[in-house]
Amino acid sequence: MKKVINLGGLGVEGRQNELIEVALTYEFDAVEVDMADLLGRNKMMGRDFALQFLKSAGTKVGSFRLPMDFGAEETRYQSQLADLKTICELANALECEVCYAVVEDSSKELAMQENFDRHQKRINEAAIILAGNGIKLGLTVTPQSQRVERAFKFINTAAELLTLVRLVGSPNVGVSFNALTWVQSEGTLEQFAKLTQAQITEVRLADYKDEIPVLPGESEDSFSLAIAKQLKAIGFDGLISVVGNPRILGKSSRDIVMPILTARLNEFVQMIQGTRDELSNLMAPCDSEETDELVGT
């Protein structure tokens, strides 16, 4: 199992050196990288420049968000598809084997069935290229805070996401599980329990307490604890992290929050591995008056 540090909520987006410093300081196994940023650096200055901080530090990469919009108009999609070979080359150079894509929640031009057909075709197209480079693709829903009202609804619930994964039908495509967006999207433990280990590309844990995101295990009847028990049952051994979210960080400094966040993640790993039965009484600072987005990726 790899403990991954995510970008969201830590104030390090686009600053590779800071992300690496946090990962090394708190002994994470891997980091999430901003592939769109790496791709831009690669185009402007070349691969050595794009990868210099990550390669020099010897930092492992857990996953990245695939900079592709499977619902985009054709010209834009083809441009993104043309970049996929370079993206795979960058990922291979970093020994990264997992990426994820956020599926749009609505469309201004395509009804549900037409959009399913478009996504099925395009996701399969990308999955073939990714599989040829040893990279799995996980799909996840758009966080509620980022959803846009458009003419036609698309993937808004966990059930719809699971239907899309099933219709795509590729062994290289699964679910990038985010506990917060899963709950927001009417996802249940029973739905999650039907997933095999091969269908779960990564797991991001957190809970809600009074509708505010908190560290996993900090709420009564913790959903993350229930998820951990299921992960233990299937012998999960993949990527695991705490959801990157500004509300979990609150107004407290990174130096205050990160030791607590890391300790909690370590406890969940131990529970999934069967070497720990209960969580300790850790409490991370969380400012309920914050107005940041409720869900990060």
| Fraction of residues in helix | 40-55%
Query: What's the number of domains?
Result: 1
Order of helices and strands: EHEHHEHEEHEEHEHHEEEHEHH
Derived from helix and strand composition plus strand pairing, the structural class reads alpha/beta
Portion of residues in beta strands equals 15-25%
State the CATH class.
Answer: Alpha Beta
Q: What strand line-up does the widest sheet have?
A: 1-2-3-4-6-8-9-12
Give the termini separation.
20 Å
Instruction: Report the major sheet.
Output: 8 strands, parallel, barrel
Shape: globular
Q: How many DSSP helices?
A: 11
Q: What's the architecture in CATH terms?
A: Alpha-Beta Barrel
Total strands: the figure is 12
